[in-house]
Specification:
The protein contains ten helices and eight strands. The protein is of the alpha/beta class and 321 residues long. An eight-stranded mixed sheet has the order 7-5-6-4-1-2-3-8, sandwiched between helices. 31% of the residues are buried.
Length: 321
Amino acid sequence: MKSDLVSIILSFRNEEDNLPELIRRLQAMADGRPEGYEFIFVNDCSTDRSVAILTQARAGDPRVKFITTARRAGPSEGVLAGLAAATGDARIYMDCDLQDPPELVPLLLAEWRAGHDVVHTRRIARHGEAPLRMWLTRRAYELINWTSRGQMPIESGDFKLLSRRAAQHMLSLREQDPYIRGLAVWMGFRQVFVDYERQPRHCGESKFSGLHRNAVKTMVSGVTSFSFLPIYVVVWAGLAGLALVPLLVLAGLLALAVGASASGWLIAALAVFFWGSLMAAMGVTGVYVARVYKDVRGRPRWLVAEAEGVEIVPDRAVTQA
């Protein structure tokens, strides 16, 4: 009986300090297991010694494979490129900083063998992270979860298992700026959670500390991918403004009745209110128009410059199984 093949996808940029220990722990986890493994590293144009380390590791272990993108693609796009190149029956994607332990993989596989197509990991503790960053991250999760009517799980990041069919369905979705944490939930199928404690980063500093651009982009992508609530909020604000107009006019008439002039205040209040509402409406509408534009434009989400051990799969060549 042929054993299952498990693909582990690791999208990264400039992780030369973490790669040797990560590879060692992946190999230690996989050695002696009944299933076969391939470790697919997606190098997002690293400028350090990451490629040299992977080349050396592959010379001693053919399970180590890697892809180098032709241009900066981004973490999510790197995951998708790895999923497209993978051949495993189960496909796990995770970060390279060892905050997500490779030793958890057998637990994910146990849930997959129990019939689940999507196995999420959920962080019950996050060691070594700044309290402010953790607070901001949780608020962002809550905002996305609230706007999507509770569809997005809180504290479930980019450490997941997808079955072969779930991965193929994920790849068939043609969204630009994909919010894959949300898409994994949105697809449905049988899903389950595995809880764990996230460890401190093994080496180096996080590429996504504080209020960085990618964090804001991820939050906006999460909200606009699954909810039209921001547009409705603008509509409600406009209706509230219209309902406020008679009250402001009445207040102005009362001011005139007592001999005071309130016209300047009323005009200024109305001008600021309607100007702000118009700007907000244009801004939110612009976000959605931008998403439509990106999807219609149809550019590939990743370009592969070279690959070792895997077949180069262009984005638009991916088809649903």
